[in-house]
Predict the 3D structure of the following.
Amino acid sequence: MTTKTVAVLGAGTMGRGIAQICAQKGHLTRLADVDEGRAKGALADISKTLERLVEKGKITGDQRHATMSNLSVAPTAKLACEGAEVIVEAVFESMAVKVELLSEVIPVAEKYAIVASNTSSLSITELGARLGVAERTVGLHFFNPVPVMELAEVVRGLSTSEKTVELTVAFAKELGKTPIVVNDMPGFATSRLGVILGAEAMRMLEQGVASAQDIDRGMELGYRHPMGPLKLTDLVGLDVRLAILEHLHREIGEQFRPPALLRQMVRAGKLGKKTGQGFYLWENGEPKPHP
């Protein structure tokens, strides 16, 4: 493996997880966020996470030290991307936001840099065309929690070069992931299947078919899903799931219409684990059924 300079843009749940695994695998990783304080907080959280892994015997103290040595916070996205060979964007699911951010940083990165978006539903073809580097633009969709989940979805836009796809697949493997390659269609492969299962679970809850806990338990025990669809929605974020469903509803059709319950909960600020309330109550990072 060749050590790369990687810029991770966005220090939310996904961005900090991506930065952690890049640094753990030996890449010089710069993390940036529009809120520099959040990026510094993410760095502190990663340090605590690694310390817990040392205590559990999962990694050594030397490995923790090496990871943190590879990881830094840049005060701006532009500084994070100076000389970067891989850019991984993990900001809000808005095409306009992604285009504005990446247009600013691409000129300071290496001319051959991979421009990867962690989007779970937006068009890689459109993103690449609007950025003017379509051949180097690719989807690199990780799953939450990033350090644990094995899958990485590599999304090929209409004009993404085969070389970019090959390099991105190789990079994902370097990070310890098992990549799948999908073509740029709305929802790709995983989001399209995942959100429709989650939406149907919400409709079942609305109709009183069963409790959230029992709907989830049915999928976990009956179909061997590691996590039920409602618990997973809490983990991903109800606002994120709503945005994906709205996008797929526009692009594909009626089967992706967001359930009324989901809209109500998002309007009430019940966004899942990150707010402490969703389909479950979250206490100390653990889900508990509503009384």
Notes: The mean pLDDT is 96. The domain at 191-281 is CATH 1.10.1040.10 (N-(1-d-carboxylethyl)-l-norvaline Dehydrogenase; domain 2).
